[in-house]
Every structure is written in structure tokens, then in C-alpha cells.
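Next comes this protein.

***
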Amino acid sequence: MNRLLILLVLLALSSVSVAQVRQGRIEAYRKNFITEQLALSTKDSAQFWKVYDEYTEKQVAIRNEMRELATGSIAKSDEQLKKDIDRTLALEQESLDLKKTYMNKLSSVLTVRQLAALLQVEEKLKRKLLEQVANRRRR
């Protein structure tokens, strides 16, 4: 019984560490990809990532809340669904406002061309990551 419990705990810990390693690799890939695509100098890169990481953290929090609102809609009352819809729309606006704020902050680090490229690079990165996930699932 004790061996089984120890085995289960080790298995759980190993899956958590695998997820952390995978997340670390994705993060490193993201930083390298964006840095290369924007042709950031070492100096600009340090300033850029300080601001951009802060922006990303806030956007992730918004997306997480939106994801939570989208779950379990079958079991929710009409009144709760209406509140969730209103909150989702407010979060979408908050996300857009945040993007505007941080584009303004990044304009002190990046050129206008780099800012314009950043918007395209973000979409390009999403497509590349989704393609990699799709390719893994096909195997």
C-alpha cells in the first residue's frame, strides 16, 4: 500500500515537472522567435522583455478569467449566463485597452516598424505553435 502511494506521488510529480519543462521550452522559443523577428539589439531586448512580459502576464490573467466564464454554461441559469456574457465583453474591452496601453509603453523601446511587426509576429507565433501541436497529435 505504501509503495503504491509513493509510486502515485512520484508519477504526479513527474507529470508536473514534464509540464514545467514543456512550458519553459515554449517560453524560450517564444522569446527567441520574437527577438529574432523584431531584430532586437541586446539593449532593446532587455527593455522590451521587461515591458512585454508584464503585458503578457496581464493578458494571461484576462484569458484565464474568460476561460473560467466559458465553462459549465449548461448548468448555469439564464441570469448567470447574462452576467457571464457581460463580464466576457468587459474583459474583451479590458484586453483591448491593455493592448493599447502597452503598445504605447513599447513605443519608447521599439520603432514604429517594430511595433507594427510585433502585431504580425504575435499572430505568426500563435500559428506556428498551433501547427506544432497539430503535428504532435497526428503522430
